[in-house]
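Backbone geometry tokens:
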Amino acid sequence: MSRSILKQSSKIGFFALISRFIAFIREWLLIQFLSVGDTSDIFFTAFRIPNTMRKIFAEGALSSILVPAFINAQHKEGQKGLHKLTTGALVIIETIIFAICVTVFCLSTNVIATIAPGFSPEKVERTAYYLKILMSFILFISSGAIFASALQSQRKFFIPAIAPSILNVVYVASLCICLYFQLSVTVFCYFMIMTSIVFLLLHLVAYFKQGYTLDRPDQQTSKEMRTIIFQLIPCIVSVGITEINHFINTGFASYLTSGSMTLLRSSFQFVNIPVGIITASLVTVLLPHFSKLHLEQPKDLVDHLFEAIKFIIWTTMPICFLLYLFSQHIFETLFMGDAQALSKIHLAQSIFTAYLVGLLSFSLNKIFLSIFYALRLTIIPMIASIIAIGINYFLNQELIQNYGAAGIALASSIAAISQTLFLTIFLSKYLHLNWSASKWFDFFARYLVQLTLCCTVLWTLYNAGYFLIGSLNFNINLHVITVSQQTFLHGFGVWFWAGPLSLGYLGLLYVTRKYFKISLTYFDH
């Protein structure tokens, strides 16, 4: 079963990797279109609310609650139970979201003034205007997410996995059109609505093509929907902690220099890459798996959780080192072609590093939350999340004074680490975890030695390559562009040698694992 989990999550991860690659192009085009200043801060602040609702109602809380609920409904009533619950979820949840959208639309100016108190009245008005256009984005995205959850509960992962890539392709195409024809930000906002409609249509067609239908809800469906809504409220807090913290960060960052909010967003986007590719893909498979185990083999939950945590630690830490080592190159590539953005590389790098401090916790928290939601427990993670949100708010006040935007990012990382500790304590008591300390010590001791040696090899080869290229002196004019050693040190050319070097480093970790006798059942069985 462990190999099956890895196989399924690898397929999802592959599509997530493609999506992230397209997302990098999207981010570069966004910098070209909006630059790093007032315009970008205004757009990203306006998009913050519908995007936050997307991450809660399309990627986080909603799917975490719906997938176990769909599995439970099918367990009791077969496919008919799934069909009825899908209909009930569409009617009730979309009615709630529609009401939220109308409220935000009517109070858009007040909403922006609240989340970005440092904005001038003119910036507040411009941001509120974009927000009114973008609010309908979540209606289509959340509807598609309900169909996606139904598909995932039946282990139909293909369309939910590939949909973000298709979405990013439409996103990139929209940006290219806006740049080529020099269209306004307003037009781009309408393009964003179009991408959300594409997302809904993809899942709607996939749902019906798999032979599923929409049946009329009954009394049992109403009872299940009350349970879902009751669980959804605390789940929004626990799953949406990152987004809630982003709102807090936005409020503090609105007082900083122009572009700070954009840099915070861009930095977190890249730190979140391994979370999106590895952890989110694994959780997509584990959530229905844990839900079925809870119903059929509850005694096996602890062992599966143990292996999931080991796998996340083993895969996340090497990538954390890679991101730190290449942080400057990432932003040199992302900001390439925009002088205003290039002048802020060192600030972006410091924010990025501060977020990296919490990378492992960002990943582990998703694993912990998946087990809670498989057990249909939402209050405990909500309490842990509220504590973490309070820590983030307090640390923002303290750290922003000395460290600016980097202090805001560091506060988020420390809050995530705090959430990990709280969830671990709660989970240990609830599941009566009796993991042997010697098992953990043996794993960490062997892994730290392996990781240290592999990172040393990478660091040595990177510096040798950087020195070798820097010692060369060439300047080739290719009519369209000029290629020099700087192209391969501080331009896009760096990835032609750093990319293979990184893949070799990850391959070295995988190959040497058996020599250090590190057991990971996702690979071994």
About this structure: The two ends are 8 Å apart (CA to CA). The chain has 24 helices and two strands.
